[in-house]
Predict the structure.
Amino acid sequence: MTRGSYPWYHSPAERSVRSWLRGNGLSNIKAALWCALAWAASVMAAEAPLGLPPVPIPADNPMSDAKVALGARLFNDKRFSSTGLVSCSNCHAPDKAFTDSPLSTSIGIRNLPGTRNAPTLANAAYFKREFWDGRAASLEDQARRPFVNAVEMGLSDYTPILQIVRSDPQYVAAFRSAFALEPAAVDMLQVRQAIAAFERTLLYADSPFDRWYFGHEPNAMSESAQRGFKVFLEDGRCQSCHTIEETDALFTDNRFHNIGVGINAIRGDLLRLTPELLLAKSRGINVDKAVLADQQIAEFGRFALTETIDDLGAFKTPTLRNVAVTAPYMHDGSLATLRDVVDHYNNGGVTDPADRVSDFLSGGIRPLHLTEQQIVDLIAFMEALTSPQFAALPTASAP
Amino acid sequence: MKSAKHVYRLLALLSALLIGALAEADEFTKDDLQRWQAQYLSTVQAGRALWVDGKLGRNGVTCAQCHPNAANTHPETYPKFQKQIGRVVLLWEMINWCLRNPLEGKPLAADDPNMIALQAYISDERRGVPLDPGKH
Amino acid sequence: MTARRQRTLAGTAAGVALPIDRRGFLGGSAALALSASLPLALFEFAAAKEAGTFTIAHLADAHIQSVRAGEFVRNWDRGLIRAVAEINLLNPPPDFVVFGGDLANFGTRAELDHGAEILSALRPKLRCVMGECDYYLDLGEYWSRLFGPPWYSFDHKGVHFVVLNSVLTYEEWTLHRWPTAEQRMGVMATIDSPDSSPFLVGEPQRAWLASDLMTVNKRTPVVVFSHAPLQQIYRDWNFWTEDAAEVQALLAPFSNVTVIYGHVHQLQYNQIGNIAFHSVVATAYPLPYPQSRAQRQSYLPRLTIPMNRADPFFERDGTGWQFLNLTTGRADIYYNLYNNSPRNVAFDSAAGRPADTSRQGSELHTSIQSPY
């Protein structure tokens, strides 16, 4: 299979998914695209694209075509929401590089707002923890949470999901095929594992940067982007957290840092809010619900989970792969373009240069004193991180 | 046999020539050694002077503040993969990382006399420690 | 954790008064023994009355450093700012805060003023200890104007506290060796300088200490705040007190003595006779352990399990501040080390010496991450 193209191969799995999708009102073309994606992804799962290491696969959830196809179906099933209108793909749409760009923060059932910008699922399989604050320990752990979040899918428990997957004949056949389980034995574990397996096929690299750096193609990346790569490694200090290595590049260190986005909104109230949060937790509030529903708790970042002072206002370093097509940026979607992002870092961790820097800022953030040329080049470099599959999507480089 | 004798003579002549040549090429005197050692030590001393010099970077921070007597520079572990540079590097590249970052300054070329002096000082303080390249 | 006290991570905006009884609270919450996170807001279920709960925050070695007029080394500034902000979040607040010395890097007024300005955001009362980087430019004159006498004592909740200026040195070196004060300060600010002079407490101060201690009951806990270690650990980097033996002798008659010292920018602890010694970490930058120096033999107190080697790529790694619990009159210290593993060193009554509460014991010894 040549990179960047989708041969239309009609595998049995693809045929059944295609007919199901058509049955759910999707057009022929979209259905075909979906299936092609799923197939292509399952083929690509055997080896990672240029620039990525092998994707980690947990021992208790090995990959299979059947599981991946099932996961794709579950991913797109809007019946798993209280209104019947929201599925995973609402916020992680494949034709938007698995985000809901250009929304700043995602909306769920009944257009209820949350507090988080939907991160791309492309390459999410490489994260050690999922969610901006690392609340979920794995893809499997993440998959179960939006279903029962009041502002996402809005179910009060998993019963509606289990009811569907145990009775819908296509699901019954699919679970039997993927897990060798009869309907009564199918549980949320298999649902989550199938979704996670599907997500582990969403590997996208082979960008102009990858071909230039790992593929040694001297003209694959523009000269401006090449200069921008130098900025990335040196004056921009980006490599500190958006790490690359000798033979592959994840562009994330899988750690959590306070870079001054959002935390300043609660700065004046920290003295009051911190003990309130700790007391509320000791009384058993659901952290998942609180971080998406309460604007102030949302800004605590990973601290809301770990209560470790190091994590105050800290969020996970996202990957920069495909960053140009996954605007807006940061955990709250508050930065609209890549230019805004670079300006924020150039200012030393504040969006408005007149603002006071957060006391809890991660140690590595400091004013960068980048020249205009360096900024332009750095943005060009980030644009060179877009995989060919997403190359046609609109970019958000500058206002 | 006559041919054998010739061969032996030829060999003997060659060896004499060779040994003579080698003896001249390899010989260096005590004076040479002392002079070269002094030159080395003056480079080490220049490195020490830079070690405590606030003008190496831009903000006045000196290497000696975090690395008194070059402790914790572990030159014997280079080359090695340095994650904040993203690849395998040599000692001088790590020094440049420090010049750029905690010292907020400008990097030095590998053959800059100051860079050579810094490396000489670091290595001299670590004299005798076995090589352990790649060690993190 | 000893039975006398349990910690949970919950707070109340109202302060120490508990709205729910102890059993109910522990039953209801996820029971948290001493966890790895900071006791940001903690209840002290002390065996003693709640009025006896007694905690102090301690931060040191800020090394505020001038770059040029009005500009200071950002990295050191951020370390101090962060420590101050975190101490302010403690709930209930500590009884007071100690700054353990070396607020400035070169002892200039600009540095001391800038450091004092950052410290002024602290909500609890502040007490300061002199460091050599505060002292050797003007022999402590400006520092004393800002922070008070360089040595004194006070009593608090049954503990006798002593603050010493332990960074003095021989008069000849101080007054006659150097043509300018800046040169003298520059040498003392460079801890590996071969031209520096060992720290000492000195005879006049020892005489004062002797008379001060005369009125203190021998069973009263005594806590000494010092910048120099009041021990002899590593002379080359001035981890040293020349008259350590004499100072220790003055403290010998007391049954319960703790010395808290700075200067070393790393975790150390020791027991000499009746005295428990605890270092504090720096807010600015960590220092290597003496054994990482190849060419010299060095001594680190045997007891000490070193902190993990700092990763230079994280500016705050290996820096931090500490939280002292003195409920029993003995120090139980929680070290909040950024991007590193927090540590807790407390006095082990059975063994009669300080111990890391989770790592001590030969089978649990963690070596520093190095072959050095």
